Amino acid sequence: MFLGHYGLAFGAKKAAPKVSLLTLFFAVEFVDILWPFLLLLDVEKVNIRPGFTEVTPFEFVHYPYTHSLVMGVVWGLLCGVIYWLFQKDMRGAMIVGLAVLSHWFLDLVVHIPDLPLTISGDTKLGFGMWNSLPMTVLTESILFIAGVWIYVKNTRAINAKGKWGLFALIVFFIIAELFNTFGPPPENSIPALLGSFVVLQAIVLGLAYVTDRNRVVG
Ligand SMILES: [Zn+2]
Questions:
Q1: How far is the CA of 115 from the centre of ligand 1 (A)?
Q2: First to last CA, the chain
Q3: In sequence order, which residues have a C-beta less than 8 Å from that of residue 78 and are 6 or more positions away?
Q4: Is pLDDT above 90 for 35?
Q5: Contact 66, 44 (CB under 8 A)
Q6: Ligand 1 center–CA 218 separation, angstroms
Q7: Which of 10, 110, 131, 153 has the fewest other C-beta atoms within 10 Å?
């Protein structure tokens, strides 16, 4: 899942108005941000096989440290505690922790049964929506549009940066989604994969930071 995670982050701003959109984006994508680094270290494993599912060419062979339910809980607790240590905002800390954990549950909808429950167990889950491109695009779009709508309803721009930053962010997401869906499959090289992830995250997090700093809640 891609856009759906960000939809949830946009929407979470209503539940935790003090938490920056940058932090919420980081939280919902925390395990995916970790993932290419663990691939590079050979701790987790992926195969890139174009046509593996209708939507994604990734065959997730082994990724229990980022994508097991147990580690989702662990990362969620860790991120929540770190947020609390820095901000002393209990509500915000809980939302950050839940946002990290939400990644597993949203991935559950689209992944084929490759999401482990524990680090070493054999049970793997996934409802397999990635076998249908129209269903995936529809579901991701609904989550994304709903989240953006909640964010727009609950915040307002205090200057041009707040307005156009959000506009640029949405346009960037649409371009990235189109590229993901209809563009060429990623290069079959982990360093190239890591490089494209870093660029994508830098743009998304940078725009989220500028946007949220120039908008106020209410
Ligand atoms: Zn994921």
A1: 9
A2: 30
A3: none
A4: yes
A5: yes
A6: 32
A7: 153
Return the closest-CA partner of residue 107 out of 154, 53, 59, 67: 67
Closest-CA residue to 129 (of 2, 18, 217): 2
Q: How many angstroms does the Cα of residue 4 sit away from the middle of ligand 1?
A: 11
Q: How far is CA 110 from the centre of its chain?
A: 13
Residues 6+ apart with CB under 8 A from 151: 10, 11, 13, 14, 21, 166
Strand spans (E) along the chain: 45-48, 58-62, 115-116, 124-125, 155-157, 215-217
Sole residue written with tokens 């090289």: 189
Q: Taking the domains of the chain in order of start, what are their residue ranges?
A: 3-217
CA-closest candidate to residue 107, choices 95, 116, 119, 96: 116
Q: Residue length, the chain?
A: 218
Cβ distance 72 to 103 under 8 Å? Answer: yes
| CB proximity list for 130: less than 8 A, separation 6 or greater | 53, 54, 55, 56, 110, 111, 112, 136
- Model confidence band, residue 30 (pLDDT cutoffs 50, 70, 90): very high
CA of 33 to the centre of ligand 1 (A): 9
Whether this model's pTM surpasses 0.85: yes
Cα 131 to ligand 1 centre (Å):
16
SS3 200: helix
Judged by DSSP in three states, 204 sits in helix
- Asked if the model's pLDDT at residue 183 lies above 90, the reply is no
CA–CA gap between residue 9 and residue 53 (Å, rounded): 26
